[in-house]
Amino acid sequence: MTVQPIRLFGDPVLRTKADEVVDFDKELRTLVQDLWDTMQDQGGAGLAAPQLGVGLRVFTYHCDGFAGHLVNPTWTAVDDEEQVGQEGCLSIPGMYWDCLRAKHVVARGWNMHGELVEVEGTDLLARCIQHETDHLDGVLFVDRLDEQTRKAALREIRQAAWFDGNAPVIKESPHPLFGGR
Fold first, then answer.
1. Which pLDDT tens digit goes with each residue over 52-81?
2. Active-site positions, per UniProt (predicted)?
């Protein structure tokens, strides 16, 4: 088991777009295992490579009875149905706010061996896929909160014992709520 430290809000790697994976090799398999071990150890529903300081487009997930990983993922909404629900992040520990997401998505990518993978999810799994894909684009879920909630969230983050004082940055996701790219 290789549990790695998780990068926290304010770390620039969390705001940097991750690079596409081009080598499906032993290093990628080690990264996927480290992501999995760390996610499991921390009790997360998902974990993206940038959260471990690795700028590659990879994430793991374990929620709603589904578990796995996606490399170079993309997603699309199945329909226009929305969901609003509490969302948290291992990079913003112990804090949760209501966030708007697509209710039903299909994600496509590859596994660590370079084989095509498709994952369809609703509710929590759909939320997880969108959340982790945002991480790969340098977007955090606080960026998706309504303005009033986001201001309150950033105030709460700045007061957290774990916050290191770096100025909060807000980014717009390249993925619209419905449709992806």
1. 999 999 999 999 999 999 999 999 999 999
2. 132
DSSP state letter for 19? B
Known binder of ligand: residue 135?
yes
pLDDT in tens, 114-128: 999 999 999 999 999
- Residue 166 CA to residue 23 CA, distance in Å, equals 33
- Closest to 50 measured CA to CA, from 13, 105, 90, 5: 13
The answer to whether 99 is annotated as binding is no
Q: What value does the mean pLDDT of the chain take? A: 92
CB 175 within 8 A of CB 133: yes
Q: Which domains does the chain have, with CATH numbers?
A: 12-159 (3.90.45.10)
Active site (annotated) includes residue 120: no
Pairing of strands 82-89, 92-102: antiparallel
Spatial CA neighbour of 107 closest among 180, 167, 3, 26: 180
In whole angstroms, what is the distance from residue 125 CA to residue 36 CA?
A: 16
Task: Given the residues 27, 81, 87, 132, select the one marked as catalytic.
Answer: 132
63 has binding-site annotation: no
